[in-house]
């Protein structure tokens, strides 16, 4: 963040100029969607026990598939954004599982991520309804008790 006359603004190009360039070339997705994807990939690797150890170069043992990435994306979005996950994703241009694949492959084409010969954009196509996955069955836990919105609920 930078300050200018008391206003705070984000200076995306200073943080990751490569992502800023992707966003300039392909304006369908917000800068934040790309930043989130890095977090989601790390989250997915941790979920599957494939995260590189500190200082270790990522390799084939750390690879996650398109369907695994999608599940990790949904998991992290629900954890980070709760009921607002769908709204955040819509603001970022992520409306379908295909959109997640486009972001991943834009990062691959910019040499910010790698892929195997088995990885394709089609791995992300229409796997499930992203909107529903982000909100269906979501509950808020308070002191270990799930709170659900229902008529006459306690």
Task: Report on this structure.
This protein is mostly helical. It has one domain (2-147). 47% of the residues lie in helices and 8% in strands. It contains 7 helices and 4 strands. It has a two-stranded antiparallel sheet. Strands 3-4 form a two-stranded antiparallel sheet. Strand 1 and strand 2 form a beta hairpin. Helix 3 crosses helix 4. 25% of the residues are buried. The model is unreliable at 1-14 and 149-154 (pLDDT under 50).
What is the element layout, followed by pairings?
Layout: E1 2-4, E2 7-9, H1 12-15, H2 17-25, H3 31-47, H4 66-81, H5 85-92, H6 97-109, H7 130-135, E3 140-142, E4 145-147
Helix pairs in contact: 3-4
Feature tags:
disordered C terminus; 154 residues; 47% helix; two-stranded antiparallel sheet; globular; mainly alpha
- List segments where confidence is low: pLDDT < 50 over at least 5 consecutive residues: 1-14, 149-154
Task: Report helical residue fraction.
Answer: 40-55%
How would a crystallographer describe the biggest sheet? Answer: 2 strands, antiparallel
Based on Cα principal axes, name the global outline.
Answer: globular
Strand content: 5-15%
> Mean pLDDT, rounded to whole units?
83
* Count of beta strands: 4
Which strand order spans the largest sheet, edge to edge or round the barrel?
1-2
Total number of helices:
7
Into how many domains do the coordinates divide? 1
Radius of gyration: 17 Å
Order of helices and strands: EEHHHHHHHEE
Structural class: mainly alpha
CA-CA gap between termini: 43 Å
